[in-house]
Amino acid sequence: MKARHSHSTVNNFRLDLLKKSLYYITKMNEMKNTNWTSYNQQRKALGIRADINRYRKQAFYLDLIIAGLLGASAALVFVIIHQIAIG
Q1: Which of 17, 30, 48, 63 has the least C-beta neighbours within 10 A?
Q2: Alpha helices, DSSP H only, in 1-87?
Q3: Rounded CA Rg of the chain
Q4: Domain residues of the chain, as ranges?
């Protein structure tokens, strides 16, 4: 003999399934959506900060080179003046 399900059992099963589906749908709707524009803005800001740090580093090295060249030219001027004065 086959066991027959009553209509109320099948309807209760369908109702439970529907409730679970609605629960998960509402939970998915409650989840926060990722704000991609904010993510892109943060990524761009990090890129800009990296560029600024790279420019500062380059400016520091160029300042060292300029200071070295100025010191060398000042020493050369004193050597020339010394040669002229001593003769």
Answers
A1: 30
A2: 7-30, 36-86
A3: 39
A4: 60-87
